[in-house]
Design brief:
Length: 295
C-alpha cells in the first residue's frame, strides 16, 4: 500500500507554479491578480480566504479582498461582481461560499464572467468540462486528478466508482475520470443516496472516489484488494483529546481499508491540501488567457 501524500505534492506543485509565474512576468506578462469576495463572519470562510490570499502572496500573484457584512443586499453584491468583471487588472474572481440565505448562490455564480470564474462553478465552465473543452476545473476534482497524475496511477480501462454526485465534487470527478485523456478513460459508475446495494459496485471498483460526507462510510468488506481509494470526505468529529476539540475524519474507514489498497489518500493530508493548487493554476491560466483566448 502506498500512501498518497497530498501535502508534499501540493507544496511541490506550488513551487512549480511560483516558477511559472516568475517566468511569465520575466517574459513581460502581467502579474496574475486574484480577487476574493467574502460575505459575513463565518469563521471557516475567513480562514479559507486568508489561506488563499497567503498562497497568492507566496507565489507572486496580486490579491485583493472585498468584504461585506452579512446584511449586504444581493443587488450590491452583484453590482460589485459586475465591476470586477469589467476591471482588466483582475484575472480571477472567487466568491467564498456559503452566502447568507437571502443571496442566491446561482445568481452570484452566473454573474461572474466565465473567463474570470477561476473556481470553475459557472455553468459555461461546467459545460465546457462536460464536452471536453479547455476550462477552469474546480478545485477538488482538480486536486483528485493531479494526485492520480503525480503518482502515475493507471486509469484507462479501469472501473472507477464515484460515491456522491454533488456539483462540486462527485459529478465533475466522474466527468474527468470518463473523458478521453489521462487521468481518465475509466469506466465510471456514480453512486448516490438512492443507490441500492452500493457495495456491489464498490467491490467491482479498481478506483473509488469517496465524496459523500459520512465519516468512515467505506468499510473493508466493501473494497477488493488492490483498489485505489481517494477519500474526499472531511467531517469534524468531537475529540476532547485534541487541542481544537475535534479531529477530521474522511469517508473511508482508513485503518481497516488502507491495508487492502494499492494507493490511498489520508484525511487530513490527502485531497484537502491539493484543492488550493487548482485555484492558483486557474488564475495563472486566466492571466495567460489560456482558456478564453480573446477576453
Ligand atoms: P454533498 O453536496 O452533501 O453531496 C453528498 C453526496 O453524497 C450526494 O450526492 C449524496 O447523494 C451522496 N450520499 C449521501 N449519503 C449517501 C449514502 N448513504 N450512500 C451513497 N451516497 C450518499 O457533499 P460534497 O460537497 O460533495 O462533499 C462531500 C464530502 O467531501 C464532505 O465531507 C465534504 O466536507 C468533503 N469535501 C472535501 C473537500 C476537500 O477539500 N477535501 C472539498 C469539498 C468537499 P444524493 O445526491 O442522492 O443526495
Amino acid at each position: 500500500m502506498e500512501l498518497i501524500d497530498g501535502k508534499s505534492v501540493s507544496e511541490e506543485l506550488k513551487k512549480n507554479i511560483q516558477q511559472e509565474v516568475s517566468n511569465w512576468i520575466a517574459s513581460g506578462g502581467k502579474k496574475p491578480h486574484l480577487c476574493a469576495i467574502l460575505v459575513g463572519d463565518d469563521g471557516a470562510s475567513h480562514t479559507y480566504v486568508a489561506a488563499k490570499i497567503k498562497d497568492c502572496e507566496a507565489i507572486g500573484f496580486t490579491s485583493s479582498l472585498f468584504r461585506f457584512d452579512s446584511q449586504v443586499t444581493e443587488e450590491k453584491l452583484l453590482s460589485t461582481i459586475i465591476e470586477i468583471n469589467q476591471n482588466p487588472d483582475i484575472d480571477g474572481l472567487i466568491v467564498q461560499l456559503p452566502l447568507p440565505g437571502h443571496i442566491s448562490v446561482d445568481r452570484v455564480t452566473q454573474t461572474i464572467a466565465p473567463e474570470k470564474d477561476v473556481d470553475g462553478f459557472h455553468p459555461q465552465n461546467v459545460g465546457r468540462l462536460s464536452i471536453g473543452l479547455p476550462t477552469y476545473v474546480s478545485a477538488t476534482p482538480f486536486g483528485i486528478i493531479k494526485l492520480m497524475e503525480y503518482y502515475g496511477i493507471e486509469t484507462a480501462g479501469k472501473h472507477c466508482v464515484v460515491l456522491g454526485r454533488s456539483n462540486i465534487v462527485g459529478t465533475p470527478a466522474s466527468i474527468l475520470m470518463s473523458r478521453n485523456a489521462y487521468p481518465g478513460n475509466a469506466t465510471v459508475t456514480i453512486c448516490h443516496s438512492k443507490t441500492k446495494d452500493l457495495e456491489k459496485y464498490t467491490l467491482q471498483a479498481d478506483i473509488i472516489i469517496a465524496a459523500i460526507g459520512i465519516p468512515e462510510f467505506l468499510k473493508a468488506h466493501m473494497v477488493k484488494p488492490g483498489t485505489v481509494v481517494i477519500d474526499v470526505g472531511i467531517t469534524r468529529i468531537e475529540d476532547s483529546s485534541k487541542k481544537a476539540g475535534f479531529r477530521l475524519v474522511g469517508d473511508v474507514d482508513f485503518a481497516a481499508v488502507a491495508p487492502l489498497c494499492s494507493y490511498i489518500t489520508p484525511v487530513p493530508g490527502g485531497v484537502g491540501p491539493m484543492t488550493r493548487i487548482g485555484l492558483l493554476t486557474n488564475t495563472l491560466k486566466s492571466a495567460r488567457k489560456e482558456i478564453y483566448t480573446t477576453n
